[in-house]
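Weekend entry, working from home. Most of the wet-lab plans are on hold until the incubator is repaired, so I used the time to fold the two sequences that have been sitting in the queue since the last round of cloning. Logging both here for the record. First:
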Amino acid sequence: MIRRVDRIQTELPPPSDPDPAGAAAVQELLGGRFGEMSTFMNYTFQSFNFRNKQGARPFYDLIANIAAEEFGHVELVCAAINTMLTGATPQISSNGRGPGSPLKGVKGVGNPHHFLAGGQGALPQNSQGRPWNGDYVFSSGDLVEDLTHNYFLETGARNGKLKVYEMVEHPAARALTGFLLVRGGVHQVAYARAIENLTGADLTKMFPAPRIPTDKIPESKKHMKTGEHLRLYRFSPKDYLELAAVFNGPHPETGEELQVVDEAPEGFPAYDLPPQTAVFAPDYAPEEIAEIAARLRKKAGLPKEPTGEVANAPARSTSRARKPAAKKSATPRRTAARSR
């Protein structure tokens, strides 16, 4: 089972100037062959299909545990893409209330699916808009073969992150890639150490690529200063206890001692991104949904204010601007808006 915590693994900046073209490039880190969906699903299926777990427990624990971290990386990439898309369409739109062309300004910019099919959010696609597919999953059942594949998957993933870093200057993209370059390096070292323990072959010496000086990248350097390049977190309160049998010894680049942290990282609250009414996200009239949610909270005996934790102050309901009589016409107006 996956235990979900409503936080993201690193801090991302708040929305600033929208960058739909940059968001389309960052999609490669989500749905590309070497994207986070690939790392997550490769390690997930390898862990699901793992045979003789007790006989190879340290290696099973390693693959299964890294899979859990990769699930969080999928969420993190989505959060960055959504941040970059925020504000790309008008906040106040005539869409749904009569004629208008609120999406005209994003025609031919970035990935049109973000606006036409994705609610101005991330999609399981690569930078070309092609969907991620299961052919990217490699799960042979042979432990040495799977671990070797994982090492090169992490190698390609870090190469891709560096290219996106160099292409996209948006603050959210830079914060994302700076962090993932460091964490991907940890996984690369982990799989190399596992193969070395199994076969005696040191892949970090045979294939020292990509040569990425993360200590010279400002957005990566800050994570290295806190030791993130050395730590493998245990994403379970009681399981995957044998990580340290494999993940130990000196870091191949810095010589510092590798560490297993016996808990998941605390994480950071994500920003509550504002509605994008031009694409009905979450609706053309989000204040109506806020009214409904407030009534449901009251009926359930919950606090008046939302209980979730977000990086920014929660938006106040704008229901005061609505007259009570508007409730009677809410459904007909929704129907008319969506069938126009």
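Second, folded right after the first finished:
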Amino acid sequence: MKKFDELTEREVLALAIALEEEDERVYADFADGLRQDYPASASMFEAMREEESEHRRRLIELFRAKFGEHIPLIRRGDVRGFVHRPALWLTRPLRIDAVRKEASTMEAETRLFYEKASHRTQDASMRQLLDDLINEERSHEHRAQQLDEGMPADVRADEDKAQRRLFVLQIVQPGLAGLMDGSVSTLAPVFAAAFATHNTYDAFLVGLAASAGAGISMGFAEALSDDGSLTGRGHPWVRGLICGAMTAIGGIGHTLPFLLRDFRVALWAAGAVVCAELGVITWISAALQVGLGGVLVFLTGVLIGSA
């Protein structure tokens, strides 16, 4: 790996060509990943891709004029000082805020590279081109930073709506599904153990085990249901983690009262929590069947524990 100061003018120009090619491809991936949900931002990145392509063409013309046809292979990873770029463009769906931040960082890094290269070169034509590219990269950097402010109000409203829709699809829905499942499915084992043993600590342990088991099961079920590539539901393991955690929380809610030593007090407290849980779930889901199902599961646990 070379230091930047060790590069020859030929290598600096070859590296500039490689950087512009990489930025062009990254912007193409950004545009492709944003096109469905954020068409206005996708159009902007497509325009930036075309400008990066023009930068590369101008750099190649200068390289041919000065050094001939062969362009040596030198990449950002071959030179010390460049920041490692996470492969954000490979993730689907793309997060619009992260993309804008990454684009601004890319342009700032490329501009600093051109500024340093311009100070080093003694060739007038090369310095002129690098200075022109500095101004253009600064324009790109400003465009990425000001994308939110410069976007028309109706377009910004559409993109905000799309972002909220994705948040609901990727975070709220798996979390709500897990909370509902955990609140309902763990009722039977917790109350069966409580009525069978009349021991609050035993009931607590059963509830804790049932909540953890349900969380693991629901987490894997959600993660393996689909990879999100066609549904837009996001990374499967993120969804699985959210769903599993909320499932466990749903079960622990009516399990915690059994930490109380007095059995009757713990039972009434747990019953109150169950009523609150089922009421909230019925209200959120707008489905009476969910609340009715929870009542049936609760009664099942009471009957089995009392047998």
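Plan for Monday: verify the second prediction. The chain has eleven helices and no strands.
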